[in-house]
TrEMBL record:
Keywords: DNA-binding, Transcription, Transcription regulation. Residues 5-71 form the HTH gntR-type domain. It comes from Pseudooceanicola lipolyticus. Pfam families: FCD, GntR. This is GntR family transcriptional regulator. PANTHER family: GLUCONATE OPERON TRANSCRIPTIONAL REPRESSOR, TRANSCRIPTIONAL REGULATOR, GNTR FAMILY. Coiled coil: none annotated.
Length: 218
C-alpha cells in the first residue's frame, strides 16, 4: 500500500509540475495511458493523481475528456479573499480548543520543522488538519467545509513549489497555537491573518516567476 501511495504522490508531483511549468498547456487533454508512458508508470497511480489534480482545480472534465486548466493570479486572489474573510474570525472563536489537542498539533508542527516535510502527504495532512481543527472549533461545520475546499485548491503550492514558505509557515502555525493556548482571540485572529497573507503573497510571487519563465520560452 505504501508503494502505491508513493507512486500516486510522485505522479501527482510530476503532473502538477508539468501544468505549472507549461509542459501541459491549458485545454490539453490529460490521458492516463499517455501520462503513464511519459512517467513510466501504470495507469492506476496516474488515475489517482488525476483525481487529485481535478480536486485542486487544475483540470476540468469536458464531456468524456479531462483537460488542463491553469490556476491564475485572479483565482488565487479570490480564494484568499474568502479564506481571509473566514479563517481569522474562526481563529478568534477557537480559543476553547483543549490544551492536549493544541499540544498534539504543536508536536506535529515541530516534528516537521526538525525533520523536514518528508513525503508530500505528511506535510499536507498536518497543514490541512491544523486549519480544520481551528475551523471546526469555531462551531460552524459549513464554514469548515468551505475552508477545506479552498485549502485543497491552494495546497498545490506546497514546499516543492514555494520552499521558502515551509519553515516560515510552520513558525506561523506555532504563533497561532500559542495565542489559542493563551485563549487570546484577537492575537490568534491577527496571527492567522498574517499567516494567510504570507501564503498568498508567496503564491503570487511563484505564479509571476512561472509566467515570466513561460514568456521567455516563447
Amino acid at each position: 500500500m505504501s508503494t502505491d501511495v508513493s507512486l500516486v504522490s510522485k505522479a501527482h508531483h510530476e503532473i502538477l509540475r508539468m501544468i505549472l511549468e507549461g509542459e501541459l498547456k491549458p485545454g490539453e487533454v490529460l490521458q492516463e495511458a499517455a501520462l503513464g508512458e511519459r512517467l513510466a508508470m501504470s495507469r492506476t497511480p496516474v488515475r489517482e493523481a488525476m483525481k487529485r489534480i481535478l480536486s485542486e482545480g487544475l483540470a476540468e472534465v469536458q464531456g468524456r475528456f479531462t483537460r488542463v486548466r491553469r490556476c491564475s493570479e485572479a483565482e488565487v486572489d479570490e480564494i484568499f479573499f474568502i479564506r481571509l474573510s473566514l479563517e481569522p474570525t474562526c481563529a478568534a472563536a477557537a480559543i476553547g480548543i483543549a490544551r492536549d489537542e493544541l499540544d498534539a498539533m504543536e508536536a506535529r508542527v515541530m516534528a516537521l520543522m526538525r525533520e523536514g516535510p518528508g513525503d508530500e502527504g505528511r506535510a499536507w495532512d498536518t497543514d490541512n488538519e491544523f486549519h480544520q481543527m481551528i475551523a471546526l472549533a469555531a462551531g460552524n461545520r459549513a464554514t469548515a467545509k468551505v475552508i477545506a475546499n479552498l485549502h485543497r485548491r491552494t495546497a498545490i503550492f506546497d514546499h516543492t513549489q514555494v520552499p521558502a514558505r515551509f519553515l516560515k509557515g510552520c513558525a506561523e502555525h506555532l504563533d497561532i497555537l500559542d495565542a489559542l493556548r493563551d485563549q487570546d482571540g484577537p492575537r490568534a485572529e491577527k496571527a492567522m491573518r498574517a499567516h494567510l497573507e504570507g501564503a498568498r503573497d508567496a503564491i503570487f510571487r511563484r505564479l509571476q516567476t512561472l509566467n515570466a519563465d513561460r514568456a521567455d520560452a516563447t
